[in-house]
């Protein structure tokens, strides 16, 4: 499989509006008295790999199931292309789903499983054979046609589920935690393979996951969901470098968040009195209480950069590619990652750290949220 | 070692040694578990079956009415060549098949509703309604049906009320068909319900997702997966009808004898060898039935 082509996949995004394949317009879904999806609007570009990311119960799966037609929204409209599909049953929607449990039909052979959708569309005989053979080759399962699903490993079943959906060439492919049941190594491999397949065939993928690393590896754009709403939507780079909320900052990777008060157009005074410089656009007109964030790998040991703090070392942890230091400063505890680029070189930690204003982001104060 | 501690020691040690013996030999544990049921199975069940088969090849002395232990195929010859017995056997098998089919057709929609549509309370209520007839005696229910089907019974009374003529169902094969279908229906509903309930919702969603409408999903996904349940239920309905002799006696007419009625009659004659020979017929029929069921793949999912 063309995993190598992965190297060429860049995360470029044309700014000009591309036709949306999926559009959600103020969609709300209630289950009894629980609001699973709360007034969500969303556009997914044609041919993109889109991820809905969030903790369990954030509404991401419900959103996916509404696009697939398995749940009906209580309010709002869902469009596939220009066509509103709200109220249409799944078999009238030009989407296919890869289910979390794969949902392969146990009584049918792999060939019949993959050919199921084609036959429902009136494809017959040699055409079915040709397309099933082709798609099974694409997912690397040639020669497995006669087997039953239970004779396949978890990873192979996952590929059959993918093939069964893709063979119909839907407008949109929906993936509901498709890699959740696989072990870590296989999961990593499948992430790259699925990314490559999506790149090759160009169908829009909408992928639901709670694994931030998986979303960042595979998706062009990610919507981070929390409490039935979209917290932030953007490319993996945007979300990681410029999280808008404390939730996003905490959900994607590790971040140090230090409470403080806006003191200038481009500065925040931390609670210990230190003033740190931040990019003006990071403040975005905020005033009063905020939290300043910086990623652990952006912090240097020593006072080489403009934003400086001092503290004493609490813990050291060797994590392979990097060494993690936890420092206790008067502004709060801070994690620092230092790359282990030279063998055996443990850096002397003086308790002085610094980072560039450009690496600094600002999110709304968490003080209200922490009480929750 | 202290003397006071040693007092309780031999017992404890013996217990430990015993558990070690069992731990080291798993087959011994299995044997200990199975000894009682296995003995009951071999002596009571297999024993009775063997006795049945063996005595089918004996004969009765016409004068003394005593069983003679002489090997003969006479009993089976009579069964095959006497058209009365052939007709009785075919009637029994035919009615058992009809009852099985009827129960399958009745049970599927109800079981489907219970398993996949009804809410918790409705489901519980339906369960009670399905099982309630089993709380009362089989005889009571047959007599109840006699009063319904009788000439001046509830059925004809209702028919007359809406201006329809009387029907004479009591003492006919139709009457037996209705009563048998009613009596064995719960035994079909329960396994079909269990099979339906085991189908993950995602299979049905996957079928819809791939373009399968209701009928297609039913035919291509649900029915093949429910087949083991239908076969399990049909084994009950088929074999229970096959072996019955009370309903034919009370609901069937004078020309509605079942294999069971002949067996009972022959035991009373007493001609036990002939009764035994006729009693092997349902056993053989069930054997073939299970073979066909296996051919259909009914046991693959077990």
Mean pLDDT of chain A: 88
The proportion of strand residues of chain B reads under 5%
> Which class of the largest domain in chain B in CATH terms?
Mainly Alpha
Helix/strand-derived category of chain B reads mainly alpha
- Number of domain units of chain B: 2
Give the assembly state of these chains.
heterodimer
Instruction: List low-confidence stretches of chain B.
Output: none
Strand content of chain A: 25-35%
Number of strands of chain B: 2
Helical coverage of chain B, percent range:
over 70%
SS summary, helix count of chain B: 14
Number of helices of chain A: 10
The amount of helix of chain A comes to 10-25%
- Provide the succession of SSEs of chain A: EEEHEEEHHHEHEHEEHHEEEHEEEEEEEH
Number of strands of chain A: 20
CATH architectural grouping of the largest domain in chain B: Orthogonal Bundle
Distance linking N and C termini of chain B: 57 Å
CATH superfamily of the largest domain in chain B: MetI-like
Unreliable sequence segments of chain A:
1-16
Strand order across the largest sheet of chain B: 1-2
CA gyration radius of chain B, whole angstroms: 27 Å
Write the topology of this structure:
The complex is a heterodimer of chains A (372) and B (302).
Chain A lengths: L19 E12 L2 E12 L3 E5 L6 H9 L6 E6 L2 E2 L10 E4 L11 H11 L4 H14 L15 H13 L5 E5 L7 H18 L2 E6 L2 H7 L2 E6 L2 E6 L1 H6 L4 H6 L4 E9 L2 E4 L4 E3 L2 H4 L5 E6 L5 E2 L5 E12 L3 E8 L2 E8 L12 E4 L4 E5 L2 H4 L2
Parallel strand pairs in A: 3-8, 3-9, 6-7, 7-8
Antiparallel strand pairs in A: 1-2, 1-4, 4-5, 9-10, 11-12, 11-14, 12-13, 14-20, 15-19, 16-17, 16-19, 17-18
Chain B lengths: L2 H4 L2 H16 L1 H30 L3 E2 L6 E2 L5 H8 L1 H35 L2 H12 L6 H12 L4 H8 L11 H26 L2 H9 L4 H29 L3 H5 L8 H10 L3 H24 L7
Antiparallel strand pairs in B: 1-2
Helix pairs in contact in B: 2-3, 4-5, 5-9, 5-11, 9-11, 10-11, 11-14, 13-14
